[in-house]
Every structure is written in C-alpha cells, then in structure tokens.
Amino acid sequence: MRKALLILTLAFSPMLTPGLAHAQCGGSWSGFLSGIRSDLQAAGLNARQVDAFLAGARQSPAVLRADRAQGVFRKTFLEFASAVISKNRMVNGAKNAKRYAKTFDRMEQTYGVSRGVLLAFWALETDYGAVQGDFNTRDALLTLAHDCRRPALFRPQVIAAGKLFRRGDFDPQRTTGAWAGEIGQVQMLPDDILRNGVDGDGDGHVRLKTSAPDALMSGANMLRDMGWRPNEPWMQEVTVPDDLDWSKTGLTTELPVSDWKARGVRARQGQLASSLRGSILLPMGRKGPAFIVYPNFRVLFEWNKSFVYVTSAAYFATRLEGAPRLDPGAPEPGLSVAQMKRLQQKLVEKGYDVGAVDGILGANTRNAVQTAQEKLGLPADGWPTRALLDRL
C-alpha cells in the first residue's frame, strides 16, 4: 500500500470547490469544524447531511505521524523495484489479469490504457486490493486540512468526500483507506472519484473498495483524464552505446526516436516506437539499467510524484506484459543519505535548485547533478557519486 508514497501523489485539482485555495487552518478544532460546516453547506449539503457527515469527527495523531515519517524515497531504483516487484505479485498479477480479462478488455477499448499499467498500480497501491489502509478517511482528511502544511490541498478533498456522502458512496463512520485520504483498490482521492469514478460492474454505484471492476475502470479513466495517450507505449528497456552523449539523457531532453536510433540506442526486446518522441532514462547512471520512455511515462507522475515509484511502476507494468527482467548492469556506488544531503547542500550553495535538502534523489536534484557534472567535465548522466561530491 502507498502509505509513505501518498503525499507525493497529490496534486491540487483545478476542478475543486472554488474559494478554498486559501482555506483557514489551525486554531481550535471546533472553530475549524465550524468553517468546514459552512463549506459543506455551500457545496450543497443540507444541515442534516452536514451533521451526519461530521458526527464524531476527530483529529488523528497517527495521520500526522505518518505524514512526517516518509523515508521510502531514499531507496535507489534497483532497491525499490526489487522490494516491490516480488514473485508473488507477478503470479497474482497474471491470475488477476485472467480473472478480470473482460474488464481489462473493456478498459483498453474504452480508455486505451494497457492492462499492465493498471495491474502494476493495483499491486503497488494495495496488493491487488488486499491491503487498503485502516485510517478513517474523513478524519484523515480533516486532520490534514486542519494541519497548516497543506490545507489548500486537503480541505477541498473534505468537501469532495461530503459530496460522495450525499450521493450515497461514502460512509464517514466506516470508510477507511490510506493515511492521506485515498480510498479503494487503486487509492483515489475523493475528488478523483467524483471526477473519474466509473461504475465498472453495473450495480449503480462506484465502490472502489469492494469492486475490482469499478477500481480498474476508474483508475484508467483517471489516467486518461491526466493526459494518457490511448494505445501508446510508456517504457522500453534499451541498450545504449558507451559513447552516448550523456548530457542528452534524462527527462529534460526528448528527441524523436529516430534520433536515438541514429545515436546507437537499441531496444533490448522488440522494436522501438519510431513514430514517437522519447527520453533516455538512466535511473542508476550510465552503468546501470537503461530505458527509453515515451510521452505516457510522464503522465504517470500525475499519479505519483516520486521518480523511483513511477519508474518502478512503469517497469513493473512492462514485466506484467511479458518483458524480461532488466539488465541491472554494474552501477557506480551511490551516496548515503548523509552524503546525499551534503551534495544537495553544496549544490544549493552553488546556486542550483535541488528542491529540498532531504537526501532524496528527486527530479530537481537529478537535473542539478547532471548540470554540475557537465560543468565539471564528468559524465553527465545525472547519477550522484562520491567523485562528484569530492569535486564539489
């Protein structure tokens, strides 16, 4: 289940209730709930519905502890992928692909999203629905909306949950999920459910916790809403020549696939999608595994903002559709968390934007590393090494 992954998934939706972007946070709990009550009524709930939705609402210290205790993103791609892509998940992926074949057929025909992608997210989010989280969703959202770190993100989700309650698809007392308020087998926020929820099993309701067809169809609809290009690939493993211009690798450079082929990039299996544009991804540097990623890969960052999570999910999806195990190569040793923080601090001192000095090799840090490597005459593959730290 996501747990530590959730917060990087969340993006403030332009479709959320107007007037809440600078919503009040902090202060007394009762005063905060009074403001929420007004927002719910403004959103169309009557007084009786508001009373029922907020009955017994309480703050959750466990949610705040989970919010402050995220460390999973400090793993490298190979560490994370090895941990989450287990034999059991591969076997259960094949079983679920067969069990819900009709749903996947309909999903691919309707939304153009490959079944491997939804199978991968379904597995990584909840182990195919087995572990969906036991935090009370209403209380989690209220707690995070009251907390002053991201009220503009979570307060609108409280209102969206209220709307789901009004239509009969949310039980404020019994609905549980992940600590950041995501619900169901593919972990969707209330507003995502309002916008993209699909009744996949034809029972007249969108039940993402108990209905796999609802969850899969809704997840595919959400990806399409995020910009998924129907019936196009997202990632392929490739081999790259030793003399490739490493400064052209990474997500900041996208070239026609024909250009990459002319530079010596080859698919490890099958053929490259010559009609598309792509980027060369080296998650562990030039000596580690290599992928070409297509426009649909970038859409996955709308599902989760973590580089290591998205890359692992995308690779897992290819495995579930028959790709072989990747060639891990022989990556240069990476940095410890303490070393990564020192590297980030040195980059900040030299004027680079690394995001936060947190020991995590995120997109901003990768870009800064690659630029610094190029300036120092090092192979500019975006992989931070002790040699780079010493040069800085």
From TrEMBL:
Gene3D superfamilies: 1.10.530.10, Bacterial muramidase (1.10.8.350), PGBD-like superfamily/PGBD (1.10.101.10). It comes from the Bacteria. Keywords: Signal. Residues 339-392 form the Peptidoglycan binding-like domain. Residues 33-317 form the Transglycosylase SLT domain. Residues 1-23 form the signal peptide. InterPro entries: Lysozyme-like_dom_sf, MltB-like, MltB_2, Peptidoglycan-bd-like, PGBD-like_sf, PGBDSf, SLT_2. NCBIfam families: MltB_2 (TIGR02283). This is Lytic transglycosylase. It comes from Thioclava nitratireducens.
